Amino acid sequence: MTFLRRHRRLVPYLLLAPGVAWLAVFFVVPLGFLAYQSLEEQDVVTYETSFAWAWHNYPDAISGNLPQLLRSFEYAALATALALLISYPLAYWIAFHGGRWRNVLLLLVIAPFFVTYLIRTLAWQSILADEGPVVGLLRDLHLLSPSGRLLDTSLSVVAGITYNFLPFMVLPLYVSLEQVDRSLVEAAKDLYASTAKAFLRVTLPLSMPGVVAGTLLTFIPAAGDFVNAQLLGTPKQWMIGNVIQSKFLELIDYPTASALSFLLMAAILALVAVYVRVLGSERLTG
Amino acid sequence: MTTVAEALSPPRPRRRVGRQALALVRRHALTVYALLALLYLLLPIAVVALFSFNDPRGRFNYVWQGFTWDNWVGWDAVPGLRSALETSLEIAALSSVGATALGTLMGLALVRYSFRGRSAANLFVFLPMATPEIVLGSALLALFLTMTAALGFWTILVAHVMFNVSYVVVTVKARLIGFDRHLEEAAMDLGANEWTTFRKVTLPLIAPGVLSALLLSFALSVDDFVITNFVAGTTVTFPLFVWGAARVGAPPQVNVIGTAIFVIAVGVMLVNVLVNIRRAKGVP
Questions:
Q1: Around B166, how many Cα atoms within 13 Å sit in the side-chain half-sphere?
Q2: Of A130-139, A193-202, B152-161, where does the model show the most confidence?
Q3: What's the pTM?
């Protein structure tokens, strides 16, 4: 204690040390091993790996899995856009018209989080199944051909991703909309702005930090997801996550799998950097 | 009273009526849209709960066949389910305590002190949350493979502490931002030493934040599939059990456990909300 009193400046570093050490050993160091593994050469017969500066693993991994890589970003972008379309009005409604029910409504938004991720996705499997009620209804209405399916299509995978990460979108949107100063909106209307114009010129710009945070929090896990493509799709809908997990855990192709992991992370970081630079948000890391 | 603008534009009253009608429609459209969005969010939960009472024929629990209590009464009739659940709860208990301890200290440092490297530390804590889970999982597997560590309980535990720390820091920080440092200084001025000040002033003030962080990391740990899948070896947690069962058709008991976890979690959160409301009203 006297030591701490004498060296007051050290206190924050001492408080940080255990957590930083943990993250260093189990987050930073593993990324180093992943990089190391991505440059290994694997014997086709024995599966033995040895380090060989095998940079060709990267172009090989890209050319061998380009459809899945592109599909990951396509599905993730679609799901993020859909999630924004669904969440913005919902968050707006809770923030501006929720009144004293706000906390209960927010609880309802977070509630799906508390049903295990896999079980949620399995629930969609049964909702969209061929024998399920939705397919039956759509077939009766001739919106779907008699042999038409919902499950195992791009649609079901994107819908699953959209659903699973929706709370990540609603919460940041709600937080930023809730902080919007109502008197500014009033002022805009007093100055003869229509409701729509007041929204576009005042509310929407002020809620942009929430839009940026929400889209990132949705896009990042969506691009790396493989559960939805596995449970709601077929190998035709596979994303890069499916390839990585099957190469790591089933096919035992560590160098390619590691290279793909790295490429995924690099691509996401690059996209996020551009996105944040364009839309501007330094409040993200707070 | 007529303003110049109104006097100059005679058709204005009619337009205003039209605008009011439009605003009415628009407000209700928003409400309907929001309620539909909520319905969409909650529909799968209703399905999960409903099918926990289903009496399926064959191995797929897709089609409603009839009501039964059997799945709830015989929830552990499926081999492996009970031990998977126990493993999940043990790991969740240990990892949430560990992550909360590490993360709370970091949160305290990041909010209460200004020091060189603080923004770098903030960014560093944020990074694991900005990395896809599949990358975290595969990187940990690369580490454990290279170290030839035996995959299982301990590697899962270590991984769960790692991904939970960042969430704890964010949660604790959010509660600490309104924290008044003068209270601690006052305690010190009145002769309390650092430890007494921490115990009597700091701890009670940060306790709600720490509790939320503990509950959040417990929930995240029980729910985690992607990272666990990479580092589990042959150990089976509840999500891994569900994954394995899904390949051959998940039994309705999985829905029972899913529903039970949901009811408990929402119950805890409701209690939390109610306590906060009472506290805000000044009732001790």
A1: 21
A2: B152-161
A3: 0.84
Distance of CA B141 to the CA centre of its chain: 25
Token pair, residue B49, equals 């709960």
* Contact check, Cβ <8 Å, A261/B102: no
- Joined together, the tokens standing for residue B14 give 């009619």
Give the bridge partners for B54, in sequence order: B67
| DSSP 8-state code for residue A286 | -
> Which site among A6, A10, A23, A281 would you substitute to test the B interface, given the most B Cβ atoms closer than 10 Å to its Cβ?
A23
Give the integer Cα–Cα distance in Å for B64 and B75.
19
3-class secondary-structure state, position A146: coil
State ipTM: 0.86
Give B78's contacts (C-beta < 8 A, 6+ positions apart).
Answer: B245, B251, B253, B254
Q: Round to whole Å and give the CA distance between B36 and B142.
A: 44
Using the Cβ of B122 and the Cβ atoms of chain A, whether some distance falls under 8 Å is answered with yes
CB A33 within 8 A of CB B148: no
The Cα-based distances of A107 to A79, B207, B268, B271 in angstroms read 23, 21, 11, 12
Do B26 and A195 lie within an 8 Å CB cutoff?
Answer: yes
What pLDDT shows up at residue B284?
A: 45
